[in-house]
Write a structure and sequence with these properties.
Order of helices and strands: EEHEEHEHHEHEH
Number of strands: 7
Radius of gyration: 17 Å
Oligomer: single chain
Structural class: alpha+beta
Strand content: 15-25%
Distance between the termini: 48 Å
């Protein structure tokens, strides 16, 4: 499987212990099977190049958990976002949908009991669905082969940022519609 990672450095051998523990699928090395989507995540940062890394992952012998947008996925993300123990430690790789960028606001509304779980799940399932893959173990990293890397041109980063912003606005409109239809704030 070809997979892609965008960051601020060339990464030939990923460190699964680098990065946030409270990300969607916990700590690990995050990649996407979608080349165009991976590039969309590229950010412009003063003084740093944005690097596109390409790999091939051999899935042979790996224990893989695949999620769909559903309650099980929601519960796993909730657990990780709250820095609770990762209860899927037996998996080398986790694959599933990315929770949208407004997840902190959504979870804030849930934890403050402003919005019930069923409505929060509807909100998180709204909008476009993109897949993330997280390498959780050294065994998974050992099955990864680095192919190449290159600097994403600034004009492409700006174009991608515009596209992401458009999707965010569409998502916010969809989220507003879900909240309106729920009748919670009448």
């Amino acid at each position: 499987m070809n997979i892609y990672h965008v960051g601020f450095s060339k990464i030939e051998t990923p460190d699964i212990h680098f990065g946030r523990k409270n990300a969607d699928f916990g700590q690990g090395f995050y990649v996407s099977p979608n080349k165009d989507f991976a590039k969309k995540w590229g950010k412009k940062r003063k003084g740093l190049d944005t690097i596109f890394n390409e790999y091939v992952l051999d899935e042979t012998g790996l224990n893989i958990k695949t999620f769909e947008r559903n309650e099980e996925w929601f519960n796993y993300i909730t657990n990780n976002r709250q820095n609770k123990d990762d209860y899927l430690k037996e998996y080398d790789i986790i694959i599933g949908p990315i929770a949208n960028d407004t997840i902190y606001d959504t979870y804030g509304a849930l934890t403050s009991e402003m919005i019930p779980v069923d409505i929060v799940l509807k909100i998180l399932c709204a909008g476009p669905q993109y897949t993330q893959i997280v390498l959780k173990t050294q065994k998974a990293v050992d099955n990864l082969k680095f192919i190449s890397s290159y600097v994403i041109p600034q004009e492409e980063l700006l174009k991608n940022a515009s596209s992401v912003r458009k999707e965010e606005i569409e998502y916010q409109e969809e989220m507003s519609k879900i909240l309106e239809e729920s009748g919670l704030f009448e």
